[in-house]
């Protein structure tokens, strides 16, 4: 990705000096006035403008305002002959990225330009990812891995039906609600409501009235006007029942009737209500065990699970870790007003080597915390809070054992360790040799050489 930088200054020697310092790394353009650079931007917008404050005619502050109004994605760094606080404050309020003071120190200016353009690079990488998975403002799911690509292809196919029930299975934090919303917005029901119900968050005695509604005076404390249930709220749309395994037995029976007939009774009513809606449910529980213990109806399970979508865990989709991490880095840098533009190689290795028991939710929380407490431009491994957990594990189990009195075969031990960890890395990387090599902190060629040498299939 080659960036373009425009330099605007009425002094030719300053323009030429800055251009000479930057032209080996960026495409550059030189302008002597605000009016001239505005014409240049109209023909070909750059990524960054270095804009002198003291321009003849239209001054730098007015030029900045014109650029920000017409081209909000173009970054502007102001250049001033002296550190006039009022001018700097005005420029920053109008949206200037930063400022530099004359006389220009080229090393400092190059670092400032590099930092500004790295923020654009990260933003563009995330935009490319979003555009790949987001069509017409529909919910998107970042997924580079084969596992996630297969899931989303399946979702695209099953979403075409307006009423076929779907059961989404997956560990906590894998993004089951996002999958449910993707099904809704890609279905013929997309113009209808998408109603979410967390069955675990509603007390058992209230879940029936929340789902099916009630008539006035149906029970003590009931509203005198009655209440429409969430199934009715989801009419001609999608009802998403999260944590379906926590549904009470009474509510299970009524839900089964609704799935079979499209009808239900409000609490306290003798008249049936008919509603057309698609039911998508999700759980992180093993429903087979609940059915064996008579805590979940088998007939309801078969009605809910006409289509099953299994969302892979974070540890089964290693190729998605860094795209997601970058996405969250941009999100939380904006939220907290931070200047992070990249993730260090050490931090990347820590992210790829961590076991994500909390899946995408855990990754999101780790990046949010790191951005909130971190400083600088590059997210470092120390800020992730992942090493400490690894140290605790190592404290409880010694890494090395004492040498036996009769010695040991060091070569055989070394080979056994390599075989074990190469196979373990391949398992975690789902057979992807590049990812497995990254987990072992070696390059791909070294990995393949050792794999061949040790006769690992």
Which key phrases capture this entry?
457 residues; single chain; 5-stranded parallel β-sheet; Rossmann fold; alpha/beta
Query: Total strand count, please?
Result: 16
Structural classification:
alpha/beta
What CATH calls the topology of the largest domain is: Rossmann fold
> CATH homologous superfamily name of the largest domain?
P-loop containing nucleotide triphosphate hydrolases
**What is the rounded distance between the termini?**
38 Å
Report the CATH C-level class of the largest domain: Alpha Beta
**What is the general shape?**
flat
How large is the share of residues in beta strands?
Answer: 5-15%
Please give the count of helices.
19
Overall domain count: 4
* Name given to the CATH architecture of the largest domain: 3-Layer(aba) Sandwich
Write the layout of secondary structure elements.
Layout: E1 4-8, H1 12-22, E2 27-31, H2 34-43, E3 48-52, H3 60-70, E4 75-80, H4 85-93, E5 98-101, H5 106-133, H6 146-158, E6 166-169, H7 176-185, E7 194-198, H8 204-212, E8 213-214, E9 227-228, H9 230-233, E10 238-242, H10 249-261, E11 263-265, E12 272-274, E13 278-283, H11 287-292, H12 298-304, E14 307-310, H13 321-336, E15 342-343, H14 345-353, H15 359-373, E16 378-379, H16 387-396, H17 410-428, H18 433-439, H19 444-453
Parallel strand pairs: 1-2, 1-3, 3-4, 4-5, 6-13, 6-14, 7-10, 10-13, 15-16
Antiparallel strand pairs: 8-9, 11-12
Helix pairs in contact: 2-3, 5-13, 10-12, 13-15, 17-18, 18-19
């Amino acid at each position: 990705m080659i960036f373009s930088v425009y330099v605007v200054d009425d002094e030719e020697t300053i323009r030429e000096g800055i251009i000479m310092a930057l032209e080996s790394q960026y495409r550059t353009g030189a302008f002597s006035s605000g009016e001239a650079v505005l014409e240049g931007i109209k023909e070909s917008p750059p990524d960054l403008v270095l804009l002198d404050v003291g321009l003849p005619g239209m001054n730098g502050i007015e030029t900045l305002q014109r650029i920000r109004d017409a081209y909000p994605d173009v970054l502007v760094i102001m250049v001033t002959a002296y550190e006039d606080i009022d001018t700097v404050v005005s420029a920053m309020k109008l949206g200037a990225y930063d400022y530099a003071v004359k006389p220009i120190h080229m090393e400092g200016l190059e670092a400032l330009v590099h930092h500004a353009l790295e923020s654009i690079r990260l933003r563009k990488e995330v935009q490319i990812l979003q555009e790949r998975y987001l069509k017409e403002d529909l919910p998107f799911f970042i997924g580079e891995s084969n596992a996630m690509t297969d899931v989303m292809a399946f979702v695209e196919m099953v979403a075409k039906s307006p009423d076929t029930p779907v059961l989404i299975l997956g560990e906590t934090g894998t993004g089951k609600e996002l999958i449910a919303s993707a099904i809704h917005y890609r279905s013929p029901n997309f113009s209808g409501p998408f109603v979410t119900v967390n069955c675990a968050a509603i007390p058992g005695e209230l879940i029936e009235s929340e789902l099916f509604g009630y008539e006035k005076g149906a029970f003590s404390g009931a509203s005198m006007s009655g209440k429409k249930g969430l199934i009715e709220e989801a009419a001609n749309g999608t009802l998403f029942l999260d944590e379906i395994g926590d549904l009470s037995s009474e509510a299970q029976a009524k839900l089964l009737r609704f799935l079979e007939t499209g009808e239900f009774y409000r609490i306290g009513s003798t008249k049936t209500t008919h509603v057309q809606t698609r039911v998508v449910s999700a759980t992180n529980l093993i429903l087979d065990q609940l059915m064996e213990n008579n805590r979940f109806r088998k007939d309801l399970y078969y009605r809910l699970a006409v289509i099953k979508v299994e969302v892979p865990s974070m540890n089964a989709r290693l190729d998605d870790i860094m795209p997601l991490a970058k996405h969250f880095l941009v999100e939380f840098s904006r939220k907290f007003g931070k200047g992070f533009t990249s993730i260090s190689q050490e931090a990347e290795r820590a992210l790829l080597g961590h076991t994500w028991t909390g899946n995408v939710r855990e990754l999101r929380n780790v990046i949010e915390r790191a951005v909130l407490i971190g400083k600088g431009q590059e997210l470092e491994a120390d800020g992730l809070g992942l090493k400490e957990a690894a140290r605790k594990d190592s404290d409880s189990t010694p890494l090395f054992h004492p040498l036996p009195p009769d010695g040991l075969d060091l070569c055989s031990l070394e080979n056994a360790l390599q075989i074990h960890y190469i196979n373990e890395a391949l398992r975690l990387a789902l057979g992807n040799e590049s990812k497995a090599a990254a987990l072992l902190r070696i390059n791909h060629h070294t990995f393949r050489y050792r794999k061949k040498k040790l006769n690992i299939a």
